[in-house]
Amino acid sequence: MALLIWPSLILTAGYGYMVTFVPRQPGWQPAYALALLLGGFWGVHLILRVTRHGGDQFLLPLAASLTALGLTFLFRLDPGLAYRQIIWTILGLLVLIVVATGFRDYQRLEQYPYLFLSLGLFFLFITVLAGTRIGGAKSWLTLGSFRMQPVEAVKVLMVMYLAGYLSDKRELLVQGAGRISWGPLLVAVAMAVLLLVLQRDLGSALILLVTFLAMLYLATGKLRFCVAGGALFSLGAVLAYLAFPYLRARIAVWINPWADYTGAGYQVVQALISLGSGGIFGTGLGLGYSQVIPAVATDFIFATMGEEMGLMGSLGVILFYLLFALRGFRAALRAPEEQGMLLAGGLTVLCTFQALVIMAGVSKLLPLTGVTLPFVSYGGSSLVISYLLLALLLNVSAAGREAKP
């Protein structure tokens, strides 16, 4: 319970900044927004305690702290988006409660791996056919004024499929008799990656493929499978580089964004300037200039955090994700059976590797991808699915604690 004090302090400090420097939005009261969020986080904690859930008590405070940081900077960048993010946060917490209490027996869910695969491929196929192109990627579905990004749910669905399939076929995959079992697995992953490439969502394709290789290693313990998968990925990346002009342009921007710093390289250049301007301890909240970066509230919010909190603040955000990974892998190691181990391990890799990809893209360590920073960036689809992922991790950790003598 004491760990929830940290996100509460972050939200309170953000409230102080908001009422002092941010113009009040019509129809909204900052105090009500603060009370709603604090009540949401503490309410979830109390519900889990009352229902004797037994999940890892570090996971919720870590996710809450990241969300609180994200909201603080969203209020600084765009109060309108921040108010909407509050609604998405409450919805995400409701999803967490429903999944954590109503679907606590995750083994029953894992009995239907092909259902998760079918849903995932269906969402990807519909997005390819009827999706809306935003920021270069055709990864959005628009229904009137409502817009969602199905790929966020697809990544979790694919992890659930892989956990069920790999745990069921593990012995066959390891032994020579498993050659027949490789076919459906490789076809499923290849179709998902291909549909993501057709959407030009290369970041999600990379995240899904790395998650698959990590889960394959967890299931079989055979490093050669991962090496072979990495070699195939490298070959596919070279072929994609030769086939798609937009990919060549993105790589060129990554190598030298200054060659077109007023055009294609503008976002990366401004992000590097923001990160460099922050120094060790940052410029202070509200004293940066990262608002000039396009899509700063979604893809580049880490640049704002780096500028206004400095290197120390950036390392603090990274530490939050490392701690989240530590607790997630701990839940995987203590899972009572292989399905839980694969599910928790896959979800942990999915979340933390996505965070690595976007933070590395903003700082030019990797080519820039249009994925969100989990629990932090603005985006309803990403935030709700992140809390769904958190609920599944809590369920696996609870099962491990109950199975412990």
TrEMBL record:
GO terms for molecular function: lipid-linked peptidoglycan transporter activity. The keyword Nuclease does not apply. The chain crosses the membrane at residues 32-51, 58-75, 81-103, 115-136, 180-198, 205-221, 227-247, 268-289, 309-329, 341-363, 375-396. GO terms for biological process: cell division; regulation of cell shape. Its main location: membrane. It comes from the Bacteria. Coiled coil: none annotated. It is found in: Membrane. The gene is ftsW_1. The keyword Iron-sulfur does not apply. GO terms for cellular component: cell division site; plasma membrane. Keywords: Cell shape, Membrane, Transmembrane, Transmembrane helix. InterPro entries: FtsW/RodA. It is a multi-pass membrane protein. This is Lipid II flippase FtsW.
